Structure formats: structure tokens, C-alpha cells
């Protein structure tokens, strides 16, 4: 059985809740990712912040990303799976909550993240297609 641990990517870059959104954006740019988990000093997951959160909840409303903290825009409920969760369990959770990135924990500590690109790399094409459709992916519209 393939598990979340088998397809997750590591290492995971975390930010703290008291770091600014400018710092989060810099970490995202350096790491080439669109979301970062927010972790405590104990590596326990406290939330997630996405590039979209920074744009919509900070920049678009005229706030200063150098003064606004990650905790202020962190998504309320952070869904995650255990590292030994089956791929089916993981995909069902992602699809049912329309999430593109899923933190993976082991003994309550963050150990990885599964994203759409991890699914594309490690699972059969039909599984990736089902995932994209389930989380609201749009099909290309042919030009005339």
C-alpha cells in the first residue's frame, strides 16, 4: 500500500506565527512553493499560509506585508494526514475539502507535504486526473 510518506516531499520549510508575511513570501520564493506551514518551536503544525492568502488578505486590502504576521492570515482549520495514511485516504481528504497541499505528520510533528505535483509524479495518470477534477481544476477551453 502506498502511503502519504511515500509520496510527500521533504524537507518542509516552516515559518512561525510571529513572522511577517514579507518573510513568508521570501521563504516561498526561495523554496519555489506557494504555501508554507506555520509551526511552533516543537515542529507541531499550527496553520498554513498561502501566496493567495498574502495577496487577498493583505496586499489587496492595503495592509503592509512587512507588518502583518502570518498568524493573522493563517487558514482556520488545517487539514493533515498521518504519514502512514493510505493514498486513498489522503486523496479523499484533499478532494472533500478542496485543498491542493496537505501537511503530513508523524507523532504530531510535521514531516512533509503532499502537493498536486507530488501526486502527478508518484501516482498513475488517472489518479492525478481524478484529483485535479475533484479539487476544481478547470479543463482547457479550445480556441476557435
From TrEMBL:
InterPro entries in alphabetical order: CBS_dom, CBS_dom_sf, Diverse_CBS-Domain
Segments forming domain CBS: 8-65, 68-130
Full protein name: CBS domain-containing protein
UniProt organism field: Mycobacterium adipatum
Keywords, comma-separated and alphabetical: CBS domain
PROSITE patterns: CBS
Pfam families registered for this protein in UniProt: CBS
